[in-house]
Amino acid sequence: MTREPPLALLAEITHRCPLQCPYCSNPVELVRAGAELATADWQRLIDEAAALGILQIHFSGGEPMVRTDLAQLVGHARAAGLYTNLITSGVLLDATKMEALARAGLDHVQISIQDSDPAGSDLISAYPGALPKKRQAALLVGEAGLALTINAVVHRQNLDRVGDMIAFAEEVEAQRIEIAHVQYYGWALKNRDFLMPTLAQLDAATALVERERARLGGRLVIDYVIPDYYARKPKACMGGWGRRFLNVSPEGKVLPCHAAETITSLAFATYPERSLADIWADDPAFAAFRGTDWMPETCKSCDRREIDWGGCRCQALALTGEAGAIDPACERSPRHDELFDLARAASLAEPVVRAWRRMGGKS
Ligand code: FES
């Protein structure tokens, strides 16, 4: 059977990062610099991605700007016909680097912010002075004529300032802001009590986002999805397992999503030991939750089975111990009510960081 090609490749070219956010989406066991794929490997992988029919590449990390070959890789991807996006914290982006990246053909930049308040930003990133650097980086992106998205990761410690984060995106003339609630696996699962918002915080933020959408009228697009723990329906995580995305880790593991390695019952193929096309076509880890055949009966018989594709497998594992279980974010899951209780308890617990994101996976 010929399989539809993936839409996008998330290239996590490094796990090195000067920030230590306690909700980082990288695995708890971070890959060290010495194990990263070399420039030539990434270039071959990019060529294979283009040949496979992939349209977009997202350079991510860690902080992708710590790799000195970033502009070279961007240029290579652009020459291969891919739309290129850089996902960065912005703290290492200066005028010289911006010029090199623009010259290489970079199309879009996504800059994450930890908070609109400098002290809150310093606290979460453990990187003093991060926010002014990010503002400067965002302005450089605009001056270079590139498209800009601000990515604001929200949680209990900053959700009350969501309006100020939207104002930040307006001030730096971004075209889009993604207000992304923390996802609870990996680092964030360890720090759930610190990060889980209360329901009252969430309701206030959701109402404010609606008002801001009306005020902005599309001048600044706001992407906003409520967090799974307070949702009634699961999200179509990654647009469905093995349907739209490939994620490649710094050492070349080819994964259906950035958190897939938390599912330790699956073995993941490594590039360049297998080609990208082979992995996409028939790797058992990709096949494990692809489509609808794997689903429990409740999901298989649900009208939304090809809308949410069964939700998030990493979350199902984190909450039930079984990656193939119904995602508890779904109101049809027998564990759904527990999830709400869990969220409520975490949101009222003492807000302590149990693990900062550091090499070695230790707090
Ligand atoms: Fe892995 Fe959702 S993060 S399936």
UniProtKB/TrEMBL annotation:
Any one Gene Ontology molecular-function term assigned to this protein's record: S-adenosyl-L-methionine binding
EC numbers for this chain: 1.21.98.4
PROSITE patterns in the record: MOAA_NIFB_PQQE (PS01305), RADICAL_SAM (PS51918)
Enzyme class: oxidoreductase
Pathway(s) it belongs to: Cofactor biosynthesis; pyrroloquinoline quinone biosynthesis
Domain Radical SAM core residue range list: 3-219
Cofactor: [4Fe-4S] cluster
Listed InterPro entries: 4Fe4S-binding_SPASM_dom (IPR023885), Aldolase_TIM (IPR013785), Elp3/MiaA/NifB-like_rSAM (IPR006638), MoaA_NifB_PqqE_Fe-S-bd_CS (IPR000385), PQQ_synth_PqqE_bac (IPR011843), PqqE-like (IPR017200), Radical_SAM_PqqE_MftC-like (IPR050377), rSAM (IPR007197)
Record CDD domains: Radical_SAM, SPASM_PqqE
List of residues binding [4Fe-4S] cluster: C17, C21, C24
Cofactor remark from the record: Binds 1 [4Fe-4S] cluster. The cluster is coordinated with 3 cysteines and an exchangeable S-adenosyl-L-methionine.
Keywords: 4Fe-4S, Iron, Iron-sulfur, Metal-binding, Oxidoreductase, PQQ biosynthesis, S-adenosyl-L-methionine
Catalytic activity: [PQQ precursor protein] + S-adenosyl-L-methionine = E-Y cross-linked-[PQQ precursor protein] + 5'-deoxyadenosine + L-methionine + H(+)
GO BP annotations listed: molybdopterin cofactor biosynthetic process; pyrroloquinoline quinone biosynthetic process
Domain of life: Bacteria
Function: Catalyzes the cross-linking of a glutamate residue and a tyrosine residue in the PqqA protein as part of the biosynthesis of pyrroloquinoline quinone (PQQ).
Complexes and interactors: Interacts with PqqD. The interaction is necessary for activity of PqqE.
HAMAP family per UniProt: PqqE
Assigned protein family: Belongs to the radical SAM superfamily. PqqE family.
This protein's name: PqqA peptide cyclase
Species the sequence originates in: Zavarzinia aquatilis
Name of the gene this protein is made from: pqqE
